[in-house]
Amino acid sequence: MTQPKHGTKPIVIEETAGKKAYCWCGLSAKLPYCDGTHGREQTGVKPIVCEVDKPGRKAVCQCHRTGTPPWCDGTHARQ
Ligand code: FES
To answer: Most buried of 5, 8, 20, 44, CB within 10 angstroms?
Structure first.
């Protein structure tokens, strides 16, 4: 299996409103967004699909230890 590309710090983006799919397997070539690799690699991990209500700056968790997925809650800096 391909090694995850995600890091240990959030990816900060200027997000638009609407339905989004954020990668949670760490293999996407389009981080922080899902590109379907989780299915091709049969990871068993699915993206986090959510509705973004308002456009603006978002920090998408990459350490996968946040308590508020897909958003960073600062856990990466505490542990
Ligand atoms: S990257 Fe910040 S909590 Fe995961």
So the answer is: 20
User: Nearest residue CA, atom 2 of ligand 1?
Assistant: 72
Domain assignment of residue 62, given as a range: 11-78
Ligand 1 contact, 61 CB (< 6 A):
yes
The response to whether residue 75 sits with its C-beta less than 6 Å from ligand 1 reads: yes
**What are the tens digits of pLDDT across the range 35-63?**
999 999 999 999 999 999 999 999 999 99
Residue 31 lies inside a defined structural domain of this protein: yes
For ligand 1, say whether the CB of 62 is within 6 Å of any of its atoms.
yes
Separation of alpha carbons 78 and 58, rounded Å: 19
